[in-house]
Structures are given as C-alpha cells and as structure tokens.
Amino acid sequence: MISIVICHRNILFLQKIKDSIKNTIGVPYELHIVDNSTGQYSIFEAYNLGVSMSQYPIICFTHEDIIFHTPNWGVHVVDHLKDETIGMIGVIGGNVFPKSPSPWWSDQILNDHLVNNIQHWENSSPSTNYQKIISQDSNEIITKQYNNPTQKNVVDAVVLDGLWFCIRKELFDIEDIKFDESTFKGFHCYDSDISLQVKQYLRVCVVFNVLIEHFQQGSINKSWFESVLALNRKWRNKLPVFAKSIDKNKYLEYEWETLRTFVYWMESNGYEEKEIKNLILEISSLLLINKQSKQIAAQLINRAKYGKNISRIINKVYKLI
C-alpha cells in the first residue's frame, strides 16, 4: 500500500530505519533506497528517482535518521489519505507562509508551528513553549515537541518539514508536480516547494497520530539561504498562503518581522552589506505598512538606505530599537 523512498547516506541510520519500518508500519510496503553515499544526487533528483520506481498509491519520503514510535502507523497514513481532499501529510509544518523569504517555521506572530515529534539536539535546544525535555547530558538534549492549537488529529498546513511526509502517487501524474531539480540543486527547500505544489490542488496537513523520533537537527548555511531565496522568487506571485483565518492587521507585522529575522540570519552567516541592502529593497517594495508594522519597516528601510552602523544610530534617535 505504501512506497517508501529514502535518500541514503549513512549506513548505520539506514539499518535502524529499515528495522523500525518493518516492525511498526503494519501494512504492505515497498522500500526504495536511493544510494547517495557519494553525493551524486541532489535531494530533488533522488526523490524523483524514487517516484519513478514506486508502485503503490501512497509514496512516503523520509529521512533515514528517524525511527517510528507508533505501532501500525501505516494504517493511519492510509486512513488519512482516504479523505480525497488531502494530498499530502506530515508530522511537522506551518499554516502560514509569507511573501518574505522564510522557512516553514517563520515568525510565530501568525504562523503556528504544528509539531509532533521527538527531537535530538546537539548541546542546546531552541527556547519554545511547545517542547518538553525528555533527557539531557553534556552532548545532547532530547525533547518531545508538540504544538496543536486545534487538538485535532489532522490540521491544515501550507508547508511541511521534510523529516517525513507522504503524498498521493497520482499527484505526480500532474505535469507541474515534481521535485524541482531545475530550480534547486542541493538539499534544502524540497519540502516547502513540493508542499506548495500539492497545495495548488489538494490539502496539505499535519497529522498528530504518528510519532517519529529524529536523531539529527538541520543547519543553516549559505546553501540554505540560496535555496530559500530561490523558493521565494519562484513562488512570490502566489504568496502569501494561509491555511487558517488571519488577522489582517497582524499579517503585515508578521511579514516585516519575518524579513527582519531573515536579515539577521544573513548577517550572522557572513552575507555582505550590499547583499542585505538589496534584499531589503527587493522585498520591502512588495510589502505595505500599517500601524503595527511601521516601526519594524522603518528599521529595515533605514538599514537599506544607510547601512547597518548609521541606521542603528538613526533608529536609536527615533527610538525604533
């Protein structure tokens, strides 16, 4: 019933997930391991290969550094996708995706971080109100992450995290649904991009009755920034996208705060001042300003006009920071 596609790079993780699937899935399945141990494929290429090999009506794309805690989780997957309005499910995602460059966990002013998993962190974990520490030592913290404002088993989202997600195979028969190896070359944003593609046709949902343990955490690097910017430019004319009702006044504050966060990340990752200025000008030209967003917008626009150091003086004088 379920085809499972894994882009393989680590033999120790691979054996663990194979055993976990066998012991927990509870339905017939086939496993397609795309050997990427030498890095010959991007994640987009690897997953497209997996699609071409898959025979069952549901395709599950998964990282290899996970195990399943839910017995018969495959039964839940099949049951969820009996709903013909749902095209894609996962266990982590966001229900708002802005016009500003952003990952799925964009600022929480509007976006609910829909999460249900067990996560391993190196040294420290993010400070959030939706996770509980299970164990910790000097090298690792393990947390249970759970955030579900609706308390329903199925919650509509816009984009899903690539840790684990399942898609109806029939959707890949649609010409414009595929892992976009033309736009993207690496290992980032495949999840957000395919979510936005599916969202054009059917619902994208986070489900809360499948529990997964994830042994590694993602990282933000130059490749990640390039992919996020490519994603933003590809989808800009169709953004923002919402999977819930929103406060229109808060929406603009959310956009500007998301842009400010992205600029801060760029600065922390060695981007040149000119690149940061250009991005602020590019995105701010697309955004309106209201009472809630005025202060943040002024900070960023001053940054684009005058640069980091002078803008900090101006912002202090006008009490913008």
What proportion of the residues is helical, as a percent range? 25-40%
Give the overall pLDDT as a whole number: 94
Oligomer: single chain
Number of strands: 16
Summed up, the domain count is 2
Largest sheet: 7 strands, mixed
pLDDT below 50 for ≥5 consecutive residues: which ranges?
A: none
State the fourth-level CATH superfamily of the largest domain.
Answer: Spore Coat Polysaccharide Biosynthesis Protein SpsA, Chain A
- Structure class: alpha+beta
Strand order of the largest sheet: 2-1-3-13-5-14-11
Give the C-level CATH assignment of the largest domain: Alpha Beta
Q: What is the molecular shape?
A: globular
Number of helices, counting only DSSP H or I runs of 4 residues or more: 9
| CATH architecture verdict of the largest domain | Alpha-Beta Complex
* Share of β-strand residues: 15-25%
What does the radius of gyration come to? 20 Å
